[in-house]
Write a structure and sequence with these properties.
Helices cover 43% and strands 16% of the residues. The two termini are 23 Å apart.
Length: 299
């Protein structure tokens, strides 16, 4: 399946901020899961190429990754097993009714999930099935390559529009999208600054993870590319009280872009990125002559 999401101008927001030209990459327009959809398709395609007929993954009971992988697996004729644990926040949307035929295994805690994944893999392999185990959040070298391709897609769209992109702002949580964009810019030789905004996770660990994923994706893509953690830009000044907790600034950013552009953001991931972008423009850190892409991953 070919994926291409729109690249759109945010003219009203640019005028309101009296800042640089702002564009939005609309990965929120992908089906049932935003950025998770790009990842799920890449993972399912890889499983099929291996001859797998069962995919197994883990996550919280709220996991959009788990839900999206279940849907993508069903659409391609694969069985799916989800090992899910209660969400730390205590809120539990009813993912169980939306898993589309997936086998659900409930773990008592996050720490119990890996053992249950291993047991499920052993059980299905014992039946003669070919099993593909997908990591938590679906982030690995395979999905890094998927977002390398998304970066190249963006460059092609910008070239068609006659636009030179100076920077991309995105939510950097598990590092998968961030790593793919970093890999893509190096493969293309593009002079684009990639700016990740953490929703509340440790920056040092994230930089290391992004660098490792770039290496894994480069190997799969047949490219000799190395990136050090020091080369990865991640802001942590917009976290507020922590992960899964909105801030006054992120809620304000939600209202601003909803009113000006009709764009919906979630308060934890994408709104914190927009809060960072707005603040960087207002404090003069981004020159008004630049062109910046806000990567809307859907949250």
């Amino acid at each position: 399946m070919t994926i291409e999401t729109p690249l759109e101008d945010l003219r009203a927001l640019s005028a309101y901020l009296e800042g640089p030209r702002l564009l939005v990459k609309r990965d929120d327009k992908l089906p049932f899961g935003g950025s998770k959809f790009r990842k799920a398709l890449a993972l399912v395609d890889h499983a099929l190429r291996r001859g797998a007929n069962v995919v197994i993954t883990e996550g919280s009971i709220e996991s959009q990754h788990a839900r999206t992988l279940a849907i993508a697996s069903q659409e391609r004729g694969l069985s799916c097993v989800l090992v899910l644990s209660p969400e730390a926040s205590g809120s539990e949307p009813n993912l169980l009714d939306d898993a589309l035929g997936a086998e659900i295994i409930i773990a008592s805690s996050e720490g119990e999930r890996p053992a249950l994944v291993a047991a499920a893999a052993e059980k299905h392999a014992g039946r003669g099935e070919v099993v593909e185990v997908v990591p938590f959040s679906g982030t690995n070298g395979i999905t890094t390559v998927a977002y390398m391709n998304a970066f190249l897609e963006l460059l092609s769209q910008a070239e068609t529009a006659g636009v030179t992109i100076d920077a991309i702002y995105l939510s950097s949580a598990t590092g998968g999208i961030h790593a793919g964009l970093e890999l893509g810019k190096r493969v293309a030789g593009a002079n684009v600054e990639i700016v990740g905004v953490t929703p509340g996770l440790a920056v040092g660990e994230l930089r290391q993870r992004v660098a490792s994923l770039v290496h894994a994706g480069a190997e799969l893509a047949g490219k000799e590319i190395e990136v050090s953690p020091a080369e990865i830009t991640i802001f942590d000044a917009y976290v507020g009280d922590g992960y899964l907790k909105p801030t006054v600034e992120s809620q304000s950013a939600q209202r601003i872009v909803r009113d000006l552009e009709g764009l919906e953001l979630d308060s934890v991931y994408t709104a914190k990125v927009m809060a960072a972008l707005i603040d960087q423009i207002r404090c003069g850190a981004i020159d008004s002559s630049k062109t910046v892409v806000y990567w809307h991953s859907s949250g």
